[in-house]
């Protein structure tokens, strides 16, 4: 590695004094080069975090845009009569970009000082071992899932729904790009679940590298985008890991406007009974298909669409009720 200029040499000496560069992997050397090139850790971390989010969010959404454009894949579409149009996808993209640039970009420069203040490693090398990172990432998944399970239910009540979460429910048949289509306050509230786990973990253990947080965020973005994709393939993760939520779980939430409040795992909705309508619906679809074994594929699809339409009609009523319900749930109190 060659660094030119006094500024770069200063950063190198200041941040990496005593580091044995020959012992570093290619990725670790690139990490050092990034921090030295930018010359300011606050900007280097902020910029890397923002770019990571943009590249992964839109990069992961592109395959779903292509899949939506190819009729062959409709056989695995959960709501096959609702394919997002290019105009809808573009409108959604503009909205997501707008909130990324107006909300996230100004706030991201606080990330490095906050992380460092809590004792998180940022520019430091070498990276932690995989066996250190894996259980930390599992904890972040667990924490976020439970946080989201509670906060998402709160967002389904009264003023919080009417003024905040209603935007995310614009699409009763979601698509990948719609994962972050939400009110800025919702991005903040639910984003807390993603970032608070690492911050708390770091505060209490003093043993966390930002690379682990980045890996977690990449996985979380994949989870969120795939859950909104609208497709359930035979090879989708929930068909391999039964407690994984996936699109099959979250698509129902958008279609029925109720049940299935968590993100990654199915267990909380199952334990607290917020998946009963979803399971009844699945049982009805299976029973109808079982009773029509000898019917044509078209006839089977027709009955499934009829059941979907019923659930969606119930969802419209449930949405109106949610808007009229008090913030703390329970009794219906008219919100003017
Ligand atoms: Zn919701
Ligand atoms: Zn959603």
List how many beta strands DSSP finds. Answer: 0
The number of domains = 1
Major beta sheet summary: none
Q: Bound small molecules, which ones?
A: zinc ion
On the 0 to 100 scale, the average pLDDT is: 91
Shape: elongated
Radius of gyration: 23 Å
> Strand content of the residues, in percent?
under 5%
Work out the helix count: 13
The SSE string, one letter per element, is HHHHHHHHHHHHH
Please bin the fraction of helical residues: 55-70%
For the termini, the CA-CA separation is: 65 Å
What structural class do helix, strand and pairing data support?
mainly alpha
Low-confidence stretches: 327-336
InterPro entries: Fatty_acid_hydroxylase, Sterol_Desaturase_Related
GO molecular function, one term: oxidoreductase activity
Subcellular location: Membrane
Domain Fatty acid hydroxylase: 138-274
Overview of this protein structure:
This protein is mainly α and 336 residues long. Residues 327-336 have low confidence and may be disordered. Helix 1 crosses helix 2 (26-38). The radius of gyration is 23 Å and the shape is elongated. Helix content is 63%, strand content 0%. The protein has helices at 6-16, 26-38, 41-69, 86-107, 111-117, 130-154, 158-163, 184-205, 210-227, 246-256, 267-271, 276-291, 297-324. Bound molecules: zinc ion (2 copies). One of its GO terms (molecular function) is iron ion binding. This is Fatty acid hydroxylase domain-containing protein. Residues 278-305 form a coiled coil.
């Amino acid at each position: 590695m060659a660094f030119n200029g006094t500024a770069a040499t200063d950063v190198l000496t200041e941040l990496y004094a005593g580091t044995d560069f020959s012992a570093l992997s290619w990725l670790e050397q690139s990490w050092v080069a990034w921090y030295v090139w930018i010359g300011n850790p606050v900007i280097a971390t902020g910029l890397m975090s923002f770019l990571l989010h943009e590249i992964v969010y839109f990069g992961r959404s592109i395959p779903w845009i292509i899949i939506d454009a190819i009729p062959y894949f409709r056989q695995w579409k959960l709501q096959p009569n609702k394919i997002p149009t290019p105009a809808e996808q573009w409108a959604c993209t503009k909205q997501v970009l707008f909130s990324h640039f107006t909300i996230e970009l100004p706030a991201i420069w606080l990330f490095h000082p906050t992380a460092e203040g809590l004792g998180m490693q940022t520019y430091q090398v070498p990276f932690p071992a995989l066996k250190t990172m894996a259980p930390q990432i599992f904890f972040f998944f667990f924490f976020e899932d439970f946080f989201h399970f509670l906060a998402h239910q709160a967002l389904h009540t009264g003023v919080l729904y009417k003024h905040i979460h209603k935007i995310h429910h614009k699409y009763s048949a979601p698509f990948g790009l719609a994962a972050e289509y939400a009110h800025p306050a919702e991005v903040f509230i639910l984003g807390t679940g993603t970032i608070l786990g690492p911050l708390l973990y770091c505060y209490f253990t003093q043993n966390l590298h930002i690379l682990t947080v980045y890996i977690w965020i990449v996985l979380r973005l994949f989870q969120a985008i795939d859950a909104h994709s609208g497709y359930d393939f035979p090879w989708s993760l929930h068909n391999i890991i039964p407690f994984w939520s996936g699109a099959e779980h979250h698509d129902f939430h958008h279609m029925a406007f109720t049940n299935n409040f968590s993100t990654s795992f199915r267990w909380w909705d199952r334990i607290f009974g917020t998946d009963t309508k979803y399971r009844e619906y699945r049982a009805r679809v299976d029973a109808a298909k079982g009773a029509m074994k000898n019917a044509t594929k078209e006839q089977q699809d027709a009955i499934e669409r009829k059941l979907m339409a019923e659930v969606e009609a119930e969802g419209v009523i449930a949405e109106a009720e949610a808007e009229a319900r008090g913030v703390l749930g329970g009794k219906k109190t008219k919100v003017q």
